[in-house]
Specification:
Layout (H helix, E strand, L loop, with lengths): L1 E7 L5 E7 L9 E6 L9 H6 L2 E6 L21 H18 L5 E6 L1 H10 L13 E5 L13 H13 L4 E3 L11 H8 L7 E3 H16 L11 E6 L7 H14 L4 E6 L13 H20 L42
Length: 338
C-alpha cells in the first residue's frame, strides 16, 4: 500500500513524503528510511512492501516537490547541517512508528553520501545507535572523473556559499548519464522537478562533505553497524572507486559486516537501467536486506555502538504515516566545515 502525506519538519518546513506498507495480511518485518527523490523509486518500493519491509521516504529540503512548497521555489536551497537535522527528525519519526522491528537507513547519490556521513556522526545523533543497518547507493563521495570539478573551484564555491545560502549556480547532470534507458533519460530531461540548478552552499556542502567522508570521517563509522555500498562501474556522475575506497577503509578500521558490490556497465541510477538490469540491482539490495532481517528478527535495544574487530563480506543472490512528532533535541553539528 502507498500513502502520500505532507509533513512538517525542522524550521517549519513542509516536506513531501511517501510511505509504502505491506498489506494487512503481511506482517511488517523491517522498516527502511530512504533518502533521495521519492518518485524516482515508485517502481522499487512496492516490491519491498510485498516482502514485509515498510519504506518511508521524503523529498529532501531543496529538492523535488518539497522545494515547490511555499511562496517561492527553493530548489537547491539547502546545506548539510540542515540535511542532517532533517534526517534525524524523520528517522525519529520512523523509529517511533516502527518501534519493534529493525530499521535501516538507505540513500542514493547525495542521499547515499549523507547516509554514510550521518552514521559517522554517532556521537552527535543518538538515533544512529538505534539503526540495524545502512545502505548507500552510488554515493556522491567524489564526482566521476569525467565531470569532476577542480579542488580549487570546489573550495572557492564553498566559501562563496558561506556568504550566501541562496546564490544560484548551474548544477548540470546530463540526462544521458543517469542510466542507459533512453525513455528514462527523456523523462529526466523533461521533468520540471529535476532542475539543473543549485546553490553555492548546497553544491559546496555536497562536494566538500563527500570528500571529507571518504578522506577522514570514515574512522567514525560505527564498527557494529552492517553496511552495504553498491555502485555502477559505468557511473558517469559519481565515482565508483571512491565507494569501494570508503568500504575498504571502514573494514580496515574494524567494521565487522561491510559489503561493497559493483555492477559492471551500470550507470548512476542502477534502479532505472533498461529491461531486467534494473531488477538485478534492486533484487541484490533486497536480498541483502532480507538476509539481515532474518538474522536480527527484531529491533535492537538502543545502546551505544562499540567498535568490534573482524570482517565479514556477504554476497547475496541475485499504515499511513503518523502526524509529525515534535522535533527531538540534538547537539550542534561538530564539524565546523559543514
Amino acid at each position: 500500500m502507498e500513502h502520500v502525506e505532507d509533513l512538517t519538519g525542522p524550521q517549519g518546513t513542509r516536506f513531501f513524503t511517501k510511505h509504502w506498507t505491506p498489506d494487512s495480511a503481511t506482517p511488517v518485518r523491517a522498516a527502511v528510511f530512504f533518502i533521495e527523490r521519492v518518485e524516482r523509486y515508485d517502481h522499487v518500493f512496492p516490491k519491498y512492501a510485498q516482502q514485509g519491509i515498510a519504506v518511508f521516504a521524503f523529498d529532501q529540503r531543496g529538492f523535488g516537490k518539497t522545494a515547490t512548497y511555499g511562496e517561492k521555489n527553493t530548489h537547491g536551497q539547502t546545506s548539510w547541517p540542515e540535511q542532517f537535522a532533517d534526517i534525524d527528525f524523520f528517522l525519529s519519526h520512523v523509529l517511533k512508528h516502527y518501534p519493534n522491528v529493525p530499521v535501516y537507513l538507505y540513500g542514493h547519490s547525495m542521499g547515499g553520501a549523507l547516509v554514510l556521513q550521518y552514521c559517522c556522526r554517532s556521537t552527535t545523533y543518538a538515533n544512529v545507535n538505534r539503526l540495524t543497518g545502512a545502505i548507500s547507493s552510488s554515493p556522491l563521495l567524489r564526482q566521476a572523473k569525467g565531470v569532476r570539478a577542480p579542488s580549487w573551484m570546489v573550495k572557492a564555491g564553498s566559501l562563496v556559499g558561506k556568504l550566501s545560502a541562496t546564490l544560484p549556480i548551474k548544477a548540470t547532470v546530463n540526462p544521458e548519464h543517469t542510466c542507459r534507458d533512453p525513455q528514462v533519460q527523456k523523462e529526466y530531461a523533461n521533468d520540471p522537478l529535476c532542475k539543473q540548478v543549485g546553490t553555492f552552499r548546497g553544491v559546496g556542502d555536497m562536494l566538500v562533505g563527500g570528500q571529507q567522508t571518504v578522506d577522514r570521517d570514515y574512522v567514525r563509522f560505527p564498527h557494529s553497524l552492517p553496511l552495504l555500498v553498491v555502485h555502477g562501474e559505468g557511473d558517469l556522475v559519481t565515482d565508483c572507486e571512491s565507494s569501494e575506497e570508503f568500504a575498504e577503509k571502514v573494514r580496515k578500521e574494524g567494521a565487522k559486516d561491510v559489503t561493497f558490490k559493483s555492477f559492471p556497465g551500470f550507470f548512476h541510477e542502477m534502479h532505472n537501467e533498461p529491461g531486467e538490469d534494473k531488477w538485478t540491482e534492486i533484487n541484490y539490495i533486497l536480498g541483502w536486506l532480507t538476509s539481515h532481517v532474518s538474522t536480527t528478527g527484531s529491533a535492537p535495544t538502543p545502546t551505544a555502538v562499540t567498535p568490534a574487530a573482524g570482517t565479514v563480506s556477504v554476497e547475496v543472490p541475485t499504515a499511513t504515516a503518523t502526524a509529525a512528532i515534535p522535533e527531538p533535541a540534538r547537539e550542534p553539528i561538530r564539524d565546523s566545515k559543514l
